[in-house]
Amino acid sequence: MLTSNHVSASITDHQQAAGGVLEVEALLKWKKSLSGQAQSLLSSWKQVPGSDKSPCTWSGIHCINGGSVSTINLTSFQLKGTLDDFNFSSFHNLSCLDLQHNSLIGNIPPRISNLSKLEILNLGYNHAKPRQQSPVRLNPAGARKVEIPQRASLEFK
């Protein structure tokens, strides 16, 4: 006989496993969109047949218990590209996104506001900027540090 605790635990486990798959797919899609040396610098970012689909052992990725990505720290990885293909909504537990000292260009997508648990955002020393017509909105509830390229402006909600 299953109790309500067993049912909720299995639902939570299933949601975490599904979230891990979404995170892996989102990271691999973004990696594929990057140019230059990113493919070799992020060589640990790959799916290995028969392995768990967790990105927790990948370079620059740190996870909380349960295997969900909590930190992406790719400082000085010589990344070239945009954030356009980064699926922010796949990262429900991301509290730190640190992409400083790279060569990211283009706009900071407004979808970055989907990172509801974000505490630290560092996009400094890149060429990315918020869109002129639609400012980037971040929820400052837990935000401790936000660092973005010079001349960029963020709007807090």
From TrEMBL:
<dbReference type="InterPro" id="IPR013210">
    <property type="entry name" value="LRR_N_plant-typ"/>
</dbReference>
<keyword id="KW-0732">Signal</keyword>
<keyword id="KW-0472">Membrane</keyword>
<dbReference type="GO" id="GO:0016020">
    <property type="term" value="C:membrane"/>
</dbReference>
<dbReference type="InterPro" id="IPR053211">
    <property type="entry name" value="DNA_repair-toleration"/>
</dbReference>
<protein>
    <recommendedName>
        <fullName>Leucine-rich repeat-containing N-terminal plant-type domain-containing protein</fullName>
    </recommendedName>
</protein>
<dbReference type="Pfam" id="PF08263">
    <property type="entry name" value="LRRNT_2"/>
</dbReference>
<keyword id="KW-0433">Leucine-rich repeat</keyword>
<keyword id="KW-0964">Secreted</keyword>
<dbReference type="InterPro" id="IPR032675">
    <property type="entry name" value="LRR_dom_sf"/>
</dbReference>
<comment type="similarity">
    <text>Belongs to the polygalacturonase-inhibiting protein family.</text>
</comment>
<keyword id="KW-0677">Repeat</keyword>
<keyword id="KW-0134">Cell wall</keyword>
<feature type="domain" description="Leucine-rich repeat-containing N-terminal plant-type">
    <location>
        <begin position="23"/>
        <end position="63"/>
    </location>
</feature>
